[in-house]
Amino acid sequence: MELLARREYGAAELAKKLAVKFDHSELIGDVLAGLQADNLQCDRRFAESFVRSRIGRGHGPLRIRREIGQRGIASELIEAAFASCQPDWFELARELRLRRFPVVGSDPKLRARVQRFLSYRGYSYDQIHYALAGPEND
Fold first, then answer.
1. pTM of the prediction?
2. CA distances from 24 to 2, 10, 13, 45 (A)
3. Which of 5, 8, 51, 134 keeps 20 to 30 A from 90, CA to CA?
């Protein structure tokens, strides 16, 4: 309960934390089942919360999918979380680029730096291209 009071956890992530903290690994499954029955732990709720928080941090869909997948969330729950948020990834990439690099122009080194930055943040090539195109770059 102490862990869940701080933030949402996925079942796999919570099981790992409990296994490190307690030696009774055979009871962890029962504890998780009880928490899920009482709706105190829910992978769907965790996935939606995780996606929203990462979007707020400026992360793109590729990075979010990778990070949430590493936390043991099923792919159908990931897709449902993305469907519930429905962000415009192209506009988010452009807003992030404008915040971090207001003027890019035609400098190839700066454009490459922006591309690497957006790629690291998890945006696809098409989204990066959209973020770099536009009247503010003329």
1. 0.82
2. 17, 19, 16, 27
3. 8
| Fold category of 2-85 in CATH | Arc Repressor Mutant, subunit A (1.10.10)
Q: Which residue has the higher pLDDT, 104 or 53?
A: 53
Mark out the alpha helices in the chain (DSSP H runs).
2-6, 11-21, 25-37, 43-56, 61-70, 75-85, 89-100, 108-121, 125-132
b/e per residue, 57-88, with b = 16+ CB within 10 A?
A: ebbbbebbbeebeebebeeebbeebbeeeeee
Which pLDDT band, with edges at 50, 70 and 90, does 36 fall under? confident
Domain ranges across the chain: 2-85, 89-137
Q: What pLDDT sits at residue 18?
A: 81
CB atoms within 10 A of CB 113: 14
